[in-house]
Every structure is written in C-alpha cells, then in structure tokens.
Amino acid sequence: MDNNKKKIAIDVFIISILFAIAGSVSISVISTVNIFNNKFKNISKYKQISAKIYELDEIVKNKYNGTIDDNKLNDELRLGYMNGIADKNSRYITKDEYTKIKKGQQGQRALFGAELIADGGYIKVKKYYNTNFNEVNELEPGDLIININGVDITTENAKESITNLWQLEGKSVDITVRRGINDINKNLVVRCVDILPIESENFDNIGYIKIQSFNNRAVNDFEKQLEKILKEEDAVIFDVRGVSSGEVEYAAKMLEFVLPQGLIVSSAHKDGTSENLFYSSGHKELKKPAVVLADSEAAGAAELFVAALKNYNKALFVGTQTAGRGTIQETFELKDGSAVELTTAEFLPPNGISFHEKGIIPDVSVETGLMQNFEEQSTFSQNDLQLLKGIEVLKNILENNATK
What pLDDT score was predicted for residue 33? Predict the structure, then answer.
C-alpha cells in the first residue's frame, strides 16, 4: 500500500511538472507572438514611411531640373519628421546649431553682448546683458537686424543667419539695423561673450538676484551670491523674468540652497509611471522674507523655481502669469553631430500639481516689461513696476515683523 501511495504521489508530481512546462511554453509562445506582432507593426510602419520617401526621391532625382544639397536635404527630412510629431517643445537641431547650443551651455551665449532671436522675417535683439559687452551700445533691445553682409534677413533664413554669425566669431560684419522707423548701417566685430548667469544688487536692506540662466555655472554663482546677500541684507528678491531656457536639474540644485527638507521635482511619464527626481536636504533653508519676480516669458526651469518657492511658502510671486511649459526635454546627439531635442516626460513641482499649458498665477499681479540691463552703479529702474512692487511687498513684511 505504501508503495502504491508513493507511486501515485510521484505520478501527480510528474503530471504537475508537465502542466507547468506546458503552461510555461504556452506563455512563452504567446509572449513571443505578441512581441513579433508589435515588431511587425513597427516594421510595417517604417516600410510605409520609407516607401513614401523613396517614391518622392525617385521623382525628384529623375525629374528635378536643379542641384540637390544632400546635407540640407537630410536636415530638412529630419526637421520634417520632428515637425510631424506636432510637439512644439521637440525639435531637430542641425550640427551647426548644436555646436552653438553647446557653447551656450558653457556660458558663451551672446553675440555682440546681446541675445538674438529669429522673429518673423528679422533677427531681433531680445535683450543685452551688460553695457561692457556691447561696445558703445551699438545694439539696443528691440532692434531688428534686417541685413547681414548684403543679404536680407527673411523668415526662411533668419535662424540660419544667426547660426552663421556664430561661425564668424572674431570677424567684422556689415549689418543694417532697423530701430523704430530708421535703418542704421553698422560694422561690428562678432564676439561670443561669456554671460554671467547670476547678477546681484541691493536696495537698502533688500538683496536682489537676477538669474539669467539655469546651467552648471549658475549653481555655483547662485550659492555664493545668495550667501553674501543673506549675511548683509534682511530680505531677498529672486528674478527669473524672461528666462525660457535652462535645465530642470540646475534649477533643482539652486533650490537646494533655499528650500526646507523635501521633494523638489518629480517626473510623470506617458506610461503612467512617475519618478522623484530631486530632493532638498534643508541644510540651507531660507529663513528670510523673499519675493520671486516672473513673467509670461518665464518657462520650464524658471517656472519650477517659482512653483517650488510658492509650494513651500518661501517667497511671494510678483509679476504676471508664466508661460506654462512643464515638460522635460532630453537632447540626443546623432552620429553626424546634429541632435534631437525630444519631450520625454512632464515634470511636477513639490505639490505634484502640473502647471504645463496653464502657467503659474502670481500672488501679486503687476504688468510691466523686463528690466533690460545692469548698469555699473545700479540695476534699479523707476520704470520697473514689478521690481518696485517686490521691494514694497518685502518692506511691508519687514515692517510688520518688526512690530511683532
């Protein structure tokens, strides 16, 4: 009897193993089929894309009465692909443009001491950073460059013309500047100047820190200048107006010198997963009253800076509603030296509430333009209503604290 029981037990065990193997094989087969189907769909999709491009290429090569620049054609194909995904924050970057961007990450951002942007059929001087960089104020904010070395600036060539200027560093160029209703001819030497990412000032007992960009150098400068201000002043104003570029990582690192212990920023991905990216240790938590100035041009990393200060009640936000760009862009360099900047996730401030496509609403709303420059003696401008309001808000806080 015992032997029979053992035999039955062994038989059951063997049958169980066989079922397990069969189940495992079934799962593996199903999994393999699913993977194959997904791969097949992708292959089919790519074959359709390739077929369309091949069809067009055959017609052009056989019928086009002209010369084709293969490099330009490849750039335009990639540009078209990125435009096709319809994400305004993702883009294809040519090799020349990417070289310029990498210089910008090292601090060499300004041509003629100015920030130049393509604006319709012109190159617009968005702002300049210091009169010392801009020889005898040859350019002014709002100037429109309409011609470079005899070539008119158009909608089609404005971006390319800015890229070409970076390649002419150290050489002189003839430009025509439209200032108001007047066109002015100038000959300027192209200089790529190293912009200070952080500049500071003080107004009575209130320190002021202007953040020009969020990069690695800015983190070190921010820490030093904030430390100096907190030793000497009773309150501080942070200014991120007009800052629409920079990396979230560096904004988070700068916030570590201000925030209490806790989460700074997290990411949300399209598959529903999330990730906590950066924390503050709270070792350098700001204990003095603060205001942060921002406007409709403040975007991305600048908005995180504003949102985090507000979430932890470390600063009042004075200014206008921000741009509402709360996505993370990663840059992938391609084999030929060009690159793709691609939106890979949405980032969230400490409270987890997205401001993407919404912007951040100020605590104190004040409409005004940007402070355009830092003069030698003072950055203070009687026309800068947002700055004036920030000073007023902090003085009221300091007075109230003194009477308690």
Answer: 44
pLDDT at 42: 62
Give the domain CATH number at 205: 3.90.226.10
Backbone φ and ψ for 21, nearest 5 degrees, come out as -65, -45
| 271 and 344 housed in the same domain | yes
pTM, entire model: 0.69
Report d(CA 170, CA 192) in Å as an integer.
8
Among residues 194, 210, 239, the one where a domain terminates is 194
Do residue 321 and residue 363 come from a single domain? yes
- Whether 216 contacts 247, CB under 8 Å: no
Domain count, the chain: 3
pLDDT score at 37: 52
Question: Does 113 share its domain with 177?
Answer: yes
Residues 6+ apart with CB under 8 A from 36: none
Q: Are residues 150 and 207 in the same domain?
A: no
For 309-356, how does the pLDDT look when each residue is reduced to its tens digit (9 = 90+)? Answer: 999 999 999 999 999 999 988 889 999 998 998 888 999 999 999 999
Q: Using the CB atoms, write b or e for 274-290: b if 16+ within 10 Å.
A: eeebbebeeebbbebbb
Return the structure tokens found at 269: 């991905």
Q: Which domain holds residue 29?
A: 1-64
Last residue of a domain, one of 129, 163, 194: 194
> Would 92 be classed as within a structural domain?
no
What's the pLDDT score for residue 194? 67
Token pair for 129: 């950073």
Q: Which residues of the chain have pLDDT under 50?
A: 1, 3, 5-8, 10, 12-15, 17-33, 35-36, 39, 108, 131, 133-135, 370-380
Shared-domain flag, residues 210 and 356? yes
